[in-house]
Amino acid sequence: MIATVATARRVLHQLRHDPRSAGLLVLMPSVLLALFHWVYAEQPWVFERVGPQMLGLFPFILMFLITSVTMVRERLSGTLERLLTTPLARGELIGGYALGFGLVAVVQAAVSSAVAIWLLDLGVDRPWEALLFAFVGSAVGIALGLLTSAFARTEFQAVQFMPLTTFPQLLVCGLLVPVDRMPEPLQWFATVLPLTYVTDAFGSLALGEGFAERVGDLLVLSAFAVAALSVASLTLRRRTP
Amino acid sequence: MPDAVDIRGLTVERGGRTVIDGLDLTIPTGVVTGLVGPSGCGKTTLIRAVAGVQVVRSGVVTVLGEPAGSATTRRRVGYVTQAGSIYPDLTTAQNLRYFAAVHRLAPDQVDEVLRAVDLTEVRDREVRHLSGGQRTRVSLAAALVAEPDLYLLDEPTVGLDPVLRRDLWQMFAELAGRGATLLVSTHVMDEADHCDRVLLMRQGRVIADDTPTGLREATGTDDIEAAFLALVGGAR
Cβ(B52)–Cβ(B74) under 8 Å? Predict the structure, then answer.
């Protein structure tokens, strides 16, 4: 536990020494939301429908990116190899990453939700629940970022994994076309991808439905995060060729 | 006293090439052992095998009485890789506090260690702004905070000012004086004179294992470089 918290603090310290990245991370989603709002100024119902779901996508995508790049850097610089020769357990390292970046994701989600709800008049009844789902979504992003970092040899490759892993999800997650109106094979595909559940939860929040409608999403996303984090910790091999 | 490291029949392949072939070796406790040889001779691979991060083809590496890389030995071994494996975007003190925490230690030692490696002045500077020599010392200090019983130091003196190099070797001797075991690699032959024992390594083989004086006497030479050449000549 000490080592997990220390790892979370360490990644947050690193981020604090890189204020430009930290600023981009926290503010970019709000800027993009505002731009989106502006683009659809003449068709406000589009923003009403898609805006809340975008609120859930940003933490996922950004955390995926920052985690995979940071982890590749850790592998390349030799710090990972060094950490693996210490008593630090792999789960503690992964848990520390999830905790540290998860906190960043909550701050980011809080800022973008506040901007969306109070400045852009987006209808989301339960801001606290929006934060909860943003956090769970980011945990899945962090987990997938850790997982894909195992397959990237360079930071450049890690960045390029983003379109590979997130674009198909963006297309089928229900953002563009509701899942039940897509061809059947795509519906199956959507069922096994985590972003679908993030989108579903935020869509349901926007409709003002009760929490009971979203319990399933929460469970599936949590299971996804735990599973991906566990698999990610297996990719951290103490011994390498 | 039992040996700190005991290696039996170690064979390592990297990239389809046999880097170490059937090596037997022991490293005594409480002394500074120098691992000396040209780049590419297998020093880093050998140190990695002792640290327990190297996939080995065959052989047994026992470290402090346990298999290399086991949970118990990880508490007692400090591994400093060749590329200063510390976080450039953290301050010196933040790096040390983190490495203390992963060893489950309170950060009480940090200031003392900073004094020992003469880094107090750059305590709160980000490591990326430090010189190469300072970074090397931060990396070393990150091992010192955990007070390990066995130090594995891969080329810790590369590119350093001679004064600093001398100070570091002095510190290694002091650590050994307090009972720690050190395995220090270097490609600078003359640095072997700072060690209690020297392992001369070439092409994955240990071609000599002796004290610096013993090595010079056995080969009838004046310095370690000449001894190395004499041994290689003899091997031919």
Answer: yes
Nearest by CB to B85, from A78, A87, A241: name it: A78
Residues 6+ apart with CB under 8 A from A110: A131
Q: State which residue of chain B sits closest to A77, comparing Cα positions.
A: B85
Residue in A closest to B90 by C-alpha: A14
Per-residue pLDDT reduced to its tens digit, A23-70:
988 888 889 889 988 999 898 888 888 888 888 888 888 888 888 888
Distances B215 to A62, B26, B195 between C-alpha atoms, Å? 59, 17, 12
Number of structural domains (chain B) is 1
How far apart (Å, rounded) are the C-alpha atoms in residues A9 and A15?
10
- Classified as helix, coil or strand, B203 is coil
Q: What is the pLDDT of residue B12?
A: 93
Provide the number of structural domains found in chain A: 1
The 10s digit of each residue's pLDDT in A56-108 is 888 888 888 888 888 888 988 889 989 999 999 888 998 898 889 888 888 98
Interchain CB distance below 8 Å, A87 and B74: yes
Which residue shows structure tokens 């002091």? B174
Asked if B99 contacts A18 with a C-beta cutoff of 8 angstroms, the reply is no
Q: Which domain holds residue B62?
A: 5-235
What gap in Å lies between CA B201 and CA B155, rounded to an integer?
Answer: 14
Nearest to A17 among B102, B126, B142 (CB): B126
Q: Read off the CATH number of the domain in which B163 is found.
A: 3.40.50.300
Q: What is the distance between the alpha carbons of residues B131 and B145, in angstroms, rounded to a whole number?
A: 21
- Contact (CB, 8 A) for B85 and A76: no
Shortest CB distance from A86 goes to which of B13, B74, B126?
B74
Q: What are phi and psi of B155, to 5 degrees?
A: 50, 55
Nearest alpha-carbon partner for B46 in B32, B56, B38:
B56
The residue range of the domain holding A126 is 2-234
Residue A106 lies in a domain: yes
pLDDT band of A179, cuts 50, 70, 90:
confident
Alpha helices, H only, chain B: 43-51, 71-76, 92-102, 110-116, 132-144, 162-177, 212-219, 224-235
What DSSP designation does B185 have? E
Q: Give kind and range of the element (H or E) at residue B195.
A: none
pLDDT per position as a tens digit, A134-147:
888 888 888 888 88
